[in-house]
Design goal:
Order of helices and strands: EHEHEHEHEHEEHHEHEHEE
Strand content: 15-25%
Number of strands: 11
Mean pLDDT: 92
Low-confidence stretches: none
Shape: globular
Number of helices: 9
């Protein structure tokens, strides 16, 4: 069967993007809508949920995806107003510095709930509806480069993101017989509102030297990968984590020397 340009289109499909009020989530929501999907944004921040939904013509539902009751309510409303979602982007997450020796049980649980627990809740609920309806689907989990490498000071966050990667593989196998694909996207440094709030004076020059392509990513580049995984162009891809990271994962410690421009492994 020859590839057709229409295979990338998402017309007639319903997509849910969690944490879609800003940052990568908003970029992905905009991308899915641009390719024809009807989009529902599940976002806990009332202001960004409303403003983003209005800007891109999406259905905005204020939802804390860490809460199963709120997830069930958001799914019911989405199905009533738009139809059964066949695309789910589990993008919601959060991070804060938490050195291993100082991490509290509450801190660990908070990072687990923000980055991993909701991935199960949302995937399970949407997949159940798809299985009952006999419909195919695509689940896209947003993890992080930190899920595939050590992250000193962020052990709990990195563990949760690593959990997302393994969960993606296992869920892909369990849902494959139902024609529901499950994949993940792993960004490195990406320019978002949250990153700019953390670095109001801009990124240090050394940050770009750590990325082979020499710059941080853009949310639209994450959106492009998400559209691909949501569409029929990726119909035989499941259980994979795609690193949309400018080459960071491949580099594995090699980086550009800021003086020579050449690659070197570790500091001088």
């Amino acid at each position: 069967m020859a590839i057709d340009t229409s295979d990338i289109l998402l017309n007639g499909r319903v997509a849910v993007v969690t944490g879609g009020g800003e940052g990568i989530g908003r970029g992905v929501a905009e991308g899915l809508a641009a390719f024809g999907a009807s989009v529902a944004i599940w976002e806990s921040n009332v202001e960004t949920c409303t403003s983003t939904a209005e800007a891109i013509g999406a259905l905005g539902i204020v939802t804390d995806v860490r809460d199963s009751g709120q997830v069930d309510a958001a799914l019911a409303r989405t199905a009533t107003e738009l139809g059964t979602p066949s695309i789910l982007v589990n993008n919601a997450g959060g991070v804060f510095n938490s050195p291993l020796l100082d991490t509290t049980e509450n801190g660990w649980d908070a990072l687990y709930k923000s980055n991993l627990r909701h991935v199960l809740l949302c995937t399970q609920r949407v997949a159940r509806r798809l299985v009952d309806a006999g419909q195919p689907g695509s689940v896209i989990n947003v993890t992080s480069i930190e899920g595939a490498r050590a992250a000193p000071g962020y052990a709990a966050y990195a563990a949760a993101k690593a959990g997302v990667i393994n969960y993606t593989k296992t869920a892909a196998l369990e849902l494959a017989p139902h024609n529901i694909r499950v994949n993940a996207l792993a960004p490195d440094l990406t320019m978002t509102e949250g990153l700019l709030r953390m670095s109001p004076n801009g990124l240090s020059p050394s940050a770009s030297h750590m990325i082979p392509m020499g710059r941080p990513g853009h949310v639209d580049e994450m959106a492009g990968a998400a559209v691909f995984l949501a569409s029929d162009m990726s119909s035989y891809i499941t259980g994979q984590t795609i690193h949309v990271d400018g080459g960071t994962q491949a580099a594995s410690g090699w980086y550009h020397n800021p003086q020579t421009g050449g690659y070197q492994l570790g500091p001088d």
